[in-house]
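This section describes the prediction task in plain terms. A model, or a person checking by hand, is given the sequence of a single protein chain and must write out its three-dimensional structure as a string of tokens. No templates, partner chains or ligands are provided. The sample shown here is typical of the held-out split.
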Amino acid sequence: MPTVRLTAIASLLALPVIASDPSAAMTEYVRQSVMTWMSNPEIVNAVVARNVATSGLSDEEVVALDNQWRAEIGAPSSPLIDMIMGSAASDAIRSQVENTDGMITEVFVMDARGLNVAASGVTSDFWQGDEAKFQETHGVGAGAIHVDEISFDESTQTYQGEVSFTLIDPATGAPIGAVTVGLNVEAFF
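The expected answer:
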């Protein structure tokens, strides 16, 4: 078993959490692990740059980008998906996810509009701004965390929980986006 997984398991065992409540353990894991590597300059700089690029978009343009993303999934040409998935920020996230030995099933980072900036894998949509994972984190401000219902994820064939949080610029302390972390629930029992 890789050292990273052993370290994560050891930190979970030290948590004062009842085993029947994986949501609390998942939230604590995200606080202790994921939040620390989200201050990576590659990720923060990508979100800051994307906020500049998307700040002037109209609601119609945001919806058009979301529709473009959905149309590109599985298509022979996918410039928007390729731009996000081929970024250095996505590479940094994938590297971290690979080191969790399956505890984390996915991670995606959103800008201040709720649009994807970076991801470990292709999401089903580009715009998360209309969902609780964004509205109850970035919309609330620093320190906000949203824990979604645990559900069976068809693509990974695992029970998955999602923990989302507001992404903060470490240099300014200002909220700049949000992060959603998909977690394999079975790893938290």
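For orientation: The chain has one domain: 19-188.
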